Amino acid sequence: KLNPNKNGFTLAEILITLTIIGIVAAITIPSLMANVQEKAWESQRKALAARMSQTFPQLSKLNGYGIGADGTTDKANAAQIFITEGLSKVYKIASVCSKDNISSCGIPSRIAYMDDSGTMAFPTTMETLNQLFTKTYSDEKVEEGTRNSESNGGIIENTDAAAFETMNGESIALFYNPKCKRNGRPWVTHYGQSEVCVNMVYDLNGSKAPNQTGKDIGFITVFFPDDPVVVAPMPVLPFKNDLVPPYSEKGNDTVTYCKNQDSNSRLPDMYEAFSILVNINLLGQSAVRVGDYWSGTHTSGVGKDGKSFRVCNHGGTYYSEPNTLGYNVFCIAK
User: Fold this and answer.
1) Which pTM value belongs to this model?
2) If 0-12 CB within 10 Å is exposed, 13-18 middle and 19+ buried, where does residue 174 land?
3) Quick check: 156 pLDDT over 90?
Protein backbone atom coordinates (compact mmCIF):
# COMPACT_ATOMS: atom_id res chain seq x y z
CA LYS A 1 0.00 0.00 0.00
CA LEU A 2 1.35 3.43 -0.95
CA ASN A 3 2.29 5.77 1.84
CA PRO A 4 0.88 9.22 0.95
CA ASN A 5 3.17 10.86 3.48
CA LYS A 6 6.41 9.54 1.89
CA ASN A 7 8.30 12.08 -0.23
CA GLY A 8 9.11 11.23 -3.86
CA PHE A 9 9.85 12.73 -7.28
CA THR A 10 7.13 14.07 -9.45
CA LEU A 11 6.94 13.18 -13.09
CA ALA A 12 7.89 16.76 -13.98
CA GLU A 13 11.01 16.58 -11.82
CA ILE A 14 12.05 13.30 -13.43
CA LEU A 15 11.58 14.72 -16.92
CA ILE A 16 13.60 17.81 -16.05
CA THR A 17 16.43 15.65 -14.65
CA LEU A 18 16.48 13.44 -17.75
CA THR A 19 16.53 16.52 -19.94
CA ILE A 20 19.52 17.92 -18.07
CA ILE A 21 21.35 14.59 -18.32
CA GLY A 22 20.60 14.49 -22.05
CA ILE A 23 21.95 18.00 -22.59
CA VAL A 24 25.15 17.27 -20.65
CA ALA A 25 25.62 14.03 -22.57
CA ALA A 26 25.08 15.81 -25.90
CA ILE A 27 27.78 18.32 -24.96
CA THR A 28 30.39 15.98 -23.48
CA ILE A 29 30.09 12.72 -25.44
CA PRO A 30 31.16 14.18 -28.84
CA SER A 31 34.19 15.75 -27.15
CA LEU A 32 35.11 12.47 -25.48
CA MET A 33 34.67 10.58 -28.75
CA ALA A 34 36.83 13.14 -30.55
CA ASN A 35 39.59 12.69 -27.98
CA VAL A 36 39.42 8.92 -28.40
CA GLN A 37 39.68 9.33 -32.19
CA GLU A 38 42.63 11.72 -31.86
CA LYS A 39 44.48 9.17 -29.71
CA ALA A 40 43.72 6.43 -32.22
CA TRP A 41 45.10 8.54 -35.09
CA GLU A 42 48.18 9.41 -33.04
CA SER A 43 48.92 5.74 -32.37
CA GLN A 44 48.36 4.82 -36.01
CA ARG A 45 50.61 7.66 -37.22
CA LYS A 46 53.43 6.55 -34.96
CA ALA A 47 53.05 2.92 -36.02
CA LEU A 48 53.14 3.87 -39.71
CA ALA A 49 56.20 6.08 -39.21
CA ALA A 50 57.97 3.26 -37.35
CA ARG A 51 57.26 0.79 -40.16
CA MET A 52 58.58 3.21 -42.80
CA SER A 53 61.69 3.93 -40.72
CA GLN A 54 62.42 0.21 -40.78
CA THR A 55 61.51 -0.24 -44.46
CA PHE A 56 63.54 2.34 -46.38
CA PRO A 57 66.98 1.36 -45.02
CA GLN A 58 66.36 -2.10 -46.49
CA LEU A 59 66.52 -0.69 -50.03
CA SER A 60 70.01 -0.74 -51.54
CA LYS A 61 69.39 2.73 -52.96
CA LEU A 62 66.52 5.18 -53.25
CA ASN A 63 67.43 6.92 -56.50
CA GLY A 64 67.63 5.79 -60.13
CA TYR A 65 64.19 4.22 -60.52
CA GLY A 66 62.38 5.33 -63.67
CA ILE A 67 65.51 6.65 -65.39
CA GLY A 68 66.29 5.26 -68.85
CA ALA A 69 69.66 4.34 -70.32
CA ASP A 70 69.84 7.78 -71.90
CA GLY A 71 69.44 9.44 -68.50
CA THR A 72 65.92 10.65 -69.22
CA THR A 73 63.36 10.35 -66.42
CA ASP A 74 60.00 8.74 -67.10
CA LYS A 75 58.30 11.59 -65.24
CA ALA A 76 54.79 10.18 -65.59
CA ASN A 77 55.71 6.79 -64.11
CA ALA A 78 58.85 7.25 -61.98
CA ALA A 79 56.98 7.11 -58.66
CA GLN A 80 54.96 4.08 -59.72
CA ILE A 81 58.13 2.32 -60.90
CA PHE A 82 59.78 3.04 -57.56
CA ILE A 83 56.83 1.53 -55.70
CA THR A 84 56.53 -1.61 -57.83
CA GLU A 85 60.23 -2.29 -58.46
CA GLY A 86 61.69 -0.98 -55.22
CA LEU A 87 59.40 -0.43 -52.26
CA SER A 88 57.16 -3.45 -52.82
CA LYS A 89 60.19 -5.74 -52.61
CA VAL A 90 60.69 -4.87 -48.94
CA TYR A 91 57.20 -3.76 -47.85
CA LYS A 92 53.87 -5.54 -48.25
CA ILE A 93 51.55 -3.43 -50.42
CA ALA A 94 47.88 -4.19 -51.01
CA SER A 95 47.47 -2.25 -54.28
CA VAL A 96 49.22 0.37 -56.44
CA CYS A 97 47.56 3.20 -58.38
CA SER A 98 48.83 5.66 -60.98
CA LYS A 99 48.39 9.43 -60.70
CA ASP A 100 45.25 9.32 -62.82
CA ASN A 101 43.72 6.65 -60.62
CA ILE A 102 44.86 7.51 -57.08
CA SER A 103 41.28 7.62 -55.81
CA SER A 104 41.15 3.85 -56.30
CA CYS A 105 43.79 3.60 -53.57
CA GLY A 106 41.64 5.64 -51.18
CA ILE A 107 43.30 9.01 -51.78
CA PRO A 108 40.74 11.81 -51.20
CA SER A 109 40.08 14.39 -53.91
CA ARG A 110 40.50 17.29 -51.46
CA ILE A 111 42.34 17.95 -48.19
CA ALA A 112 41.26 20.29 -45.40
CA TYR A 113 44.09 22.50 -44.15
CA MET A 114 45.37 21.94 -40.64
CA ASP A 115 44.59 25.53 -39.61
CA ASP A 116 40.96 25.30 -40.84
CA SER A 117 41.59 28.04 -43.44
CA GLY A 118 40.00 26.04 -46.27
CA THR A 119 40.72 23.07 -48.51
CA MET A 120 42.97 22.20 -51.44
CA ALA A 121 42.84 19.67 -54.26
CA PHE A 122 45.02 16.69 -53.49
CA PRO A 123 48.44 17.31 -55.16
CA THR A 124 49.41 14.82 -57.85
CA THR A 125 52.83 16.12 -58.95
CA MET A 126 55.98 17.39 -57.25
CA GLU A 127 55.15 20.88 -58.47
CA THR A 128 51.62 20.93 -57.06
CA LEU A 129 52.93 19.59 -53.76
CA ASN A 130 55.53 22.36 -53.52
CA GLN A 131 56.80 24.60 -56.31
CA LEU A 132 60.14 25.00 -54.53
CA PHE A 133 60.92 21.47 -55.70
CA THR A 134 60.90 22.33 -59.36
CA LYS A 135 62.57 25.75 -59.27
CA THR A 136 66.23 26.11 -60.23
CA TYR A 137 68.67 27.32 -57.61
CA SER A 138 72.43 27.28 -57.28
CA ASP A 139 73.52 24.94 -54.53
CA GLU A 140 75.79 27.16 -52.46
CA LYS A 141 77.96 25.34 -49.97
CA VAL A 142 79.72 27.29 -47.24
CA GLU A 143 82.39 25.73 -45.10
CA GLU A 144 85.37 27.31 -43.34
CA GLY A 145 85.03 30.50 -45.36
CA THR A 146 85.04 28.73 -48.75
CA ARG A 147 82.04 29.15 -51.05
CA ASN A 148 81.42 26.90 -54.04
CA SER A 149 78.45 26.85 -56.37
CA GLU A 150 76.89 23.87 -58.08
CA SER A 151 74.34 24.92 -60.68
CA ASN A 152 70.83 23.48 -60.45
CA GLY A 153 71.65 21.99 -57.07
CA GLY A 154 68.15 22.60 -55.77
CA ILE A 155 66.06 21.39 -58.70
CA ILE A 156 63.89 18.30 -58.57
CA GLU A 157 62.23 16.93 -61.69
CA ASN A 158 58.48 17.43 -61.77
CA THR A 159 57.45 13.79 -61.58
CA ASP A 160 53.89 12.57 -61.16
CA ALA A 161 52.82 10.98 -57.91
CA ALA A 162 51.59 7.42 -57.53
CA ALA A 163 49.61 5.87 -54.70
CA PHE A 164 49.40 2.60 -52.80
CA GLU A 165 47.40 1.01 -50.03
CA THR A 166 49.08 -0.71 -47.11
CA MET A 167 47.98 -4.00 -45.62
CA ASN A 168 46.95 -1.99 -42.53
CA GLY A 169 44.46 0.09 -44.51
CA GLU A 170 46.40 3.36 -44.92
CA SER A 171 46.28 5.17 -48.27
CA ILE A 172 49.60 6.74 -49.29
CA ALA A 173 50.45 9.08 -52.17
CA LEU A 174 54.17 8.90 -52.97
CA PHE A 175 56.14 11.75 -54.55
CA TYR A 176 59.48 10.61 -55.94
CA ASN A 177 62.74 12.29 -56.93
CA PRO A 178 64.74 9.72 -58.95
CA LYS A 179 67.86 11.92 -59.02
CA CYS A 180 68.13 12.62 -55.30
CA LYS A 181 71.62 12.95 -53.88
CA ARG A 182 73.54 13.81 -50.74
CA ASN A 183 74.70 17.42 -51.00
CA GLY A 184 76.73 17.96 -47.89
CA ARG A 185 77.11 17.55 -44.16
CA PRO A 186 74.37 18.92 -41.90
CA TRP A 187 76.50 21.88 -40.78
CA VAL A 188 77.04 23.08 -44.37
CA THR A 189 74.68 25.74 -45.73
CA HIS A 190 73.00 24.47 -48.89
CA TYR A 191 69.72 23.96 -50.72
CA GLY A 192 68.03 20.82 -49.51
CA GLN A 193 65.45 20.04 -52.20
CA SER A 194 67.57 17.54 -54.11
CA GLU A 195 68.29 15.58 -50.92
CA VAL A 196 64.62 14.59 -50.72
CA CYS A 197 64.22 11.18 -52.36
CA VAL A 198 60.68 10.33 -51.29
CA ASN A 199 57.82 12.26 -49.76
CA MET A 200 54.63 10.50 -48.76
CA VAL A 201 51.28 12.06 -47.91
CA TYR A 202 49.13 9.51 -46.11
CA ASP A 203 45.49 9.18 -45.13
CA LEU A 204 45.00 6.84 -42.20
CA ASN A 205 41.42 5.90 -43.11
CA GLY A 206 41.36 6.29 -46.88
CA SER A 207 38.88 8.73 -48.34
CA LYS A 208 36.70 8.74 -45.21
CA ALA A 209 36.23 12.03 -43.34
CA PRO A 210 37.66 14.27 -42.04
CA ASN A 211 40.49 14.22 -44.64
CA GLN A 212 42.32 16.94 -42.71
CA THR A 213 46.03 17.42 -42.19
CA GLY A 214 46.87 16.92 -38.53
CA LYS A 215 44.06 14.43 -38.06
CA ASP A 216 43.81 11.49 -40.46
CA ILE A 217 46.27 13.06 -42.94
CA GLY A 218 50.01 13.50 -42.40
CA PHE A 219 53.33 13.19 -44.20
CA ILE A 220 56.63 11.28 -44.12
CA THR A 221 59.82 12.47 -45.84
CA VAL A 222 62.86 10.36 -46.73
CA PHE A 223 66.27 11.97 -47.31
CA PHE A 224 69.36 10.66 -49.15
CA PRO A 225 69.73 7.78 -51.65
CA ASP A 226 71.75 5.69 -49.19
CA ASP A 227 71.64 5.47 -45.39
CA PRO A 228 68.31 7.30 -45.54
CA VAL A 229 66.87 9.55 -42.87
CA VAL A 230 63.11 9.02 -42.41
CA VAL A 231 61.06 11.63 -40.53
CA ALA A 232 57.35 12.07 -39.88
CA PRO A 233 56.82 15.39 -38.05
CA MET A 234 53.35 16.46 -37.00
CA PRO A 235 53.16 20.25 -36.44
CA VAL A 236 50.97 21.56 -33.65
CA LEU A 237 48.96 24.78 -33.70
CA PRO A 238 49.42 27.69 -33.53
CA PHE A 239 52.10 28.39 -36.12
CA LYS A 240 54.21 31.45 -35.35
CA ASN A 241 53.83 33.95 -38.18
CA ASP A 242 56.30 36.83 -38.46
CA LEU A 243 53.65 38.99 -40.16
CA VAL A 244 51.96 39.30 -36.77
CA PRO A 245 54.64 40.48 -34.27
CA PRO A 246 55.97 39.40 -31.89
CA TYR A 247 55.74 35.93 -33.40
CA SER A 248 59.47 35.37 -33.87
CA GLU A 249 61.62 33.72 -31.24
CA LYS A 250 65.32 33.87 -30.51
CA GLY A 251 66.97 30.52 -30.98
CA ASN A 252 67.71 30.33 -27.27
CA ASP A 253 63.98 30.69 -26.48
CA THR A 254 62.50 28.20 -28.94
CA VAL A 255 62.65 25.11 -26.73
CA THR A 256 60.95 26.96 -23.91
CA TYR A 257 58.33 28.30 -26.32
CA CYS A 258 57.37 24.81 -27.49
CA LYS A 259 57.15 23.51 -23.91
CA ASN A 260 54.95 26.43 -22.91
CA GLN A 261 52.74 26.04 -25.97
CA ASP A 262 52.11 22.35 -25.40
CA SER A 263 53.84 20.09 -22.89
CA ASN A 264 53.68 17.30 -25.47
CA SER A 265 55.42 19.30 -28.21
CA ARG A 266 59.05 19.95 -29.05
CA LEU A 267 61.25 21.75 -31.56
CA PRO A 268 61.83 19.78 -34.81
CA ASP A 269 65.31 18.66 -35.78
CA MET A 270 66.77 19.88 -39.06
CA TYR A 271 65.26 17.14 -41.23
CA GLU A 272 61.87 17.39 -39.55
CA ALA A 273 61.91 21.15 -40.15
CA PHE A 274 62.70 20.60 -43.83
CA SER A 275 59.94 17.99 -44.08
CA ILE A 276 57.52 20.65 -42.86
CA LEU A 277 58.80 22.91 -45.64
CA VAL A 278 58.25 20.17 -48.23
CA ASN A 279 54.62 19.80 -47.13
CA ILE A 280 53.89 23.33 -45.97
CA ASN A 281 51.11 23.84 -48.52
CA LEU A 282 49.10 21.12 -46.74
CA LEU A 283 49.05 23.04 -43.48
CA GLY A 284 47.15 26.18 -44.48
CA GLN A 285 47.55 29.86 -45.16
CA SER A 286 48.92 30.71 -41.72
CA ALA A 287 51.73 28.18 -42.22
CA VAL A 288 52.58 29.30 -45.76
CA ARG A 289 53.00 32.88 -44.52
CA VAL A 290 55.59 31.85 -41.95
CA GLY A 291 59.07 32.95 -43.03
CA ASP A 292 62.36 31.40 -41.98
CA TYR A 293 62.01 29.13 -38.96
CA TRP A 294 64.20 27.39 -36.41
CA SER A 295 65.09 23.74 -36.11
CA GLY A 296 66.55 22.18 -32.99
CA THR A 297 69.72 20.93 -34.70
CA HIS A 298 72.81 22.71 -33.40
CA THR A 299 76.27 23.08 -34.86
CA SER A 300 79.12 21.23 -33.21
CA GLY A 301 80.20 24.50 -31.61
CA VAL A 302 76.95 25.24 -29.83
CA GLY A 303 77.76 26.69 -26.45
CA LYS A 304 80.83 28.32 -27.97
CA ASP A 305 79.45 30.09 -31.04
CA GLY A 306 75.80 29.90 -29.93
CA LYS A 307 74.56 28.87 -33.38
CA SER A 308 71.59 26.78 -34.40
CA PHE A 309 70.12 25.76 -37.74
CA ARG A 310 67.15 27.50 -39.26
CA VAL A 311 65.34 26.53 -42.45
CA CYS A 312 64.59 29.19 -45.06
CA ASN A 313 61.24 28.44 -46.68
CA HIS A 314 61.71 30.96 -49.49
CA GLY A 315 64.61 29.14 -51.14
CA GLY A 316 64.59 25.75 -49.43
CA THR A 317 67.90 26.25 -47.67
CA TYR A 318 69.59 25.24 -44.44
CA TYR A 319 71.43 28.04 -42.61
CA SER A 320 73.35 28.15 -39.38
CA GLU A 321 72.57 31.34 -37.46
CA PRO A 322 73.35 32.77 -34.01
CA ASN A 323 70.80 31.82 -31.37
CA THR A 324 70.46 35.49 -30.49
CA LEU A 325 68.57 36.19 -33.73
CA GLY A 326 64.79 35.92 -33.97
CA TYR A 327 63.05 33.58 -36.42
CA ASN A 328 59.77 31.69 -36.42
CA VAL A 329 58.86 28.35 -34.88
CA PHE A 330 56.97 25.23 -35.90
CA CYS A 331 56.58 23.04 -32.83
CA ILE A 332 55.84 19.35 -33.46
CA ALA A 333 54.19 16.60 -31.44
CA LYS A 334 56.55 14.38 -29.46
Assistant:
1) 0.85
2) buried
3) no
